[in-house]
Structures are given as structure tokens and as C-alpha cells.
Amino acid sequence: MSIATRTARDTVEATTGITASDLTGRGRDRNVKSVLFLVALWFSLFFGVVVLIALIVDTVIKGAPRLDAELFTNYHSKISPDTTGFRAGILGSIWLMFATALLAIPLGMAAAIYLEEFANKRSRLHRVIDVNLQNLAAVPSVIYGMLAVAVLALFDPPFKGIVIGGALALALLILPVIIITTREAIRAVPQEIRQGSLALGATVWQTTWRNTLPSAVPGIATGTILGLSRAIGEAAPLLMLGVAMVRTDPTGLFDKVTALPIQIYNFSSEPNEAYQIASSAAIVILLAMILGMNALAIVIRNKFQKSW
């Protein structure tokens, strides 16, 4: 705390009799009820973390015997459960994430830029869109799967279980997240940067494209990656679209595809213990992919984050 801050605080306390703890509320909150609530809160947090760690450790121990190269190179097999693999699921998840990013990121960024920089924020339509964006982020993922099924049903039944179908459902799922995080990142850019650009004669679009967006890239990238890391673990919308177990590698957007969560779901319900061990190993792979994407988001945020 600087000398000027301490002096200002002492002056306020001497003239008004109000202490810093009164202003923050900390002094008033330290009664029996607040302490009990704080203890219950910390216990709930501690219990949740312990259960999560126990589940992860148990899964790693069960799946450790199958964390080998065959898990990545073999297809699933009903004949040799001891050497069954997840090659189709791993490649399918990568294809689905690639297609989901192509669909969701440009559309989500364009919507966020329009709502934050060009739309009339005082209009009733803008307020309605704001409220619905917040609500859409909490809609269960299976609803997006049903919506994607309805959209694809307009074309032809052969479009069932293909890459573009699963990507459409996952893109709808993470679109509200991308729009909200992009808007927050754009909103965090100081108005002085926009005003300086406009004062030099730039248009609103030029200011947005050359000044606002580059400054908001860390927040946009972080929110986008976190959205994709949520999508890669979803199975419900893919089940609604008829994504099933296949033994082929997808080579295009209209090829049949399976995903790692689908294979885990199917193998974990098998009575054969070998399949359950393999599904535990696949869960470890999926966790590693999600943690890797979250780590990438943290690196991007720390590397490119600016302090205004």
C-alpha cells in the first residue's frame, strides 16, 4: 500500500469514524453464523475436491494396464477385447473439434462484435438477445442435439451420424459461451483506444478491426478454447444425432464418425472386464486432452494479456 493511500485511509477514518473493515464489511461479517457458513463452505469445497481426486486416481489405476500404443492404433474389437483400441474415437473427436471450431468461432465472434460495437444497446431487441444468451448458456446439451437433428432432418436421412452433423450440434452448444466471452473481452478494451482511433479519422469498422479486436485476442482465445474443451467431452448431443461405433477414420465432413465419449459410454456398459479397463484408459486420454486444452488457454492468456 502506498503512502498516499495510507494517508487517505487515515484521514477518512479520523474524520468519519468509519474504518476500512467497515467499508469492506469484513468486521461486521465475523459473527457465529458467518463463521459457521464459511466452515460449511470450505468443507463442501474440500469434500468435492477430495471426491474428484479419488475418482481420477481410481480411474488412472484401473486404466494403467491398457495405456499402451495399441490403445491409439487399434480399432475397437469384439473378438479381442484385451487389445481393443480407440483409434476411430480419437481421430473422430479431433475431426469433430476441427469442424466445430470452423462453424462456431467465426459465427460467435461476428455476433459478439455486432452486439458490442454496432448494435443499438438501448433497443428492446438488444435486451432480449442479452437475456436469451445468458439462458442459452445453461440449456442442457441434449436439447442442442435435438435441434441439430431437426435441422438435418430437413435434408436427408443419410446425413445421420456424420462429422458435419455432430459438429453442428457441438457448435450450437458452445456458441453462447463464445459470444459471451468474446463480448466480455471486447468490453474490457478501454474506450480511450476507440476514441483515439475515431479522432484520427478511422471508421467504426476500421477501429474495431485494427485496434479493438487485436487488444481483445487473449480473452477471445481463452473463451474459445474453454468452449471447445467443454464440447470434446459431450456425448448426449452426439447420441441424439445417431453417432455410433464405426471402424473407419473420417476423411471428410460427410464421413461417418464416432467420438471418444461415445466409445467410453459403450465400453463402460460391457460386462467384460477388459472393456471396462479399456474404457478407464480412454477416460485418462480424454482427461489429458481436456487438461491440455485448458493449459493452452492459460498459456495464451498469460502470454498475451495486457494491463491497461
From TrEMBL:
Keywords: Cell membrane, Membrane, Transmembrane, Transmembrane helix, Transport. Gene3D superfamilies: MetI-like. It holds the Pfam family BPD_transp_1. It comes from the Bacteria. Residues 90-296 form the ABC transmembrane type-1 domain. The keyword Transmembrane applies. The chain crosses the membrane at residues 35-57, 94-115, 136-155, 161-181, 277-300. It is found in: Cell membrane. It is a multi-pass membrane protein. InterPro entries: MetI-like, MetI-like_sf, Phosphate_PstA. PANTHER family: PHOSPHATE TRANSPORT SYSTEM PERMEASE PROTEIN PSTA, PHOSPHATE TRANSPORT SYSTEM PERMEASE PROTEIN PSTA-RELATED. Part of the binding-protein-dependent transport system for phosphate; probably responsible for the translocation of the substrate across the membrane. Belongs to the binding-protein-dependent transport system permease family. CysTW subfamily. This is Phosphate transport system permease protein PstA.
